[in-house]
């Protein structure tokens, strides 16, 4: 079944609202957790719509927060 409409172009939330750029910090794990999957993996740019510049900054700060144990490296899956 074909799509009726073309997919909408994703707009970077950091370009739309410049105040969000100040929130990109390892000290703000609640904000960074928005860019993690339920399993603790970093969600790719093509899914979130974040530009390359800000995605690199997000990845850097997420990794810093992980090293300080503010964010998990992985979430354990107890379904097995």
From TrEMBL:
Source species of the chain: Eiseniibacteriota bacterium
Family: Belongs to the bacterial ribosomal protein bS18 family.
Record NCBIfam families: S18 (TIGR00165)
Subunit structure: Part of the 30S ribosomal subunit. Forms a tight heterodimer with protein bS6.
GO cellular component: cytosolic small ribosomal subunit
Gene3D superfamilies in alphabetical order: Ribosomal protein S18
Cited Pfam families: Ribosomal_S18
Glycosyltransferase keyword on record: no
HAMAP family in alphabetical order: Ribosomal_bS18
UniProt entry keywords in alphabetical sequence: Ribonucleoprotein, Ribosomal protein, RNA-binding, rRNA-binding
Keyword Cytoplasm: no
Biological process, per Gene Ontology: translation
Function of the molecule: Binds as a heterodimer with protein bS6 to the central domain of the 16S rRNA, where it helps stabilize the platform of the 30S subunit.
Molecular function in Gene Ontology: small ribosomal subunit rRNA binding; structural constituent of ribosome
The protein's name in its UniProt record: Small ribosomal subunit protein bS18
